[in-house]
Amino acid sequence: MVREIMKEVGFLSQKSQPATKDDLSAAGDLLETLEAHKESCVGMAANMIGVHKCIIAFDNDGKYMVMFNPEIIKKSQSFETEEGCLSLIGMRKVKRWRSIKVQYQNSDFQSRYKTFTGWTAQIIQHEIDHCEGIII
Questions:
Q1: Which of 37, 50, 51, 84 has the most C-beta neighbours closer than 10 Å?
Q2: Is-catalytic flag, 39?
């Protein structure tokens, strides 16, 4: 189900709770909402659709990927950039990393590790910030 985009800063600034198998339907809604906004959005976190669970969905080189409980465990090559967000107005300066290694769970809640670089790494960092209640 496509959900409305959350714009309430007080809600978005709260840290998300760990996701469980009970949250698979929320992940489905997150993907559908991301697809509905594909012209202006490349990633979303569950709190952007009003769900305080640590779930992100993003465009991974043309194919959508969902991560449950993602955590950056290694990062390198910091840089400064500007980002926007569907939940916020305007662009904001942020520090990001060119390469990140992420520990996460797949939809079967099996632990996985994957390294991402460039644009995809930047998207993931933005969405993990959402899970942490960090507003750019």
A1: 51
A2: no
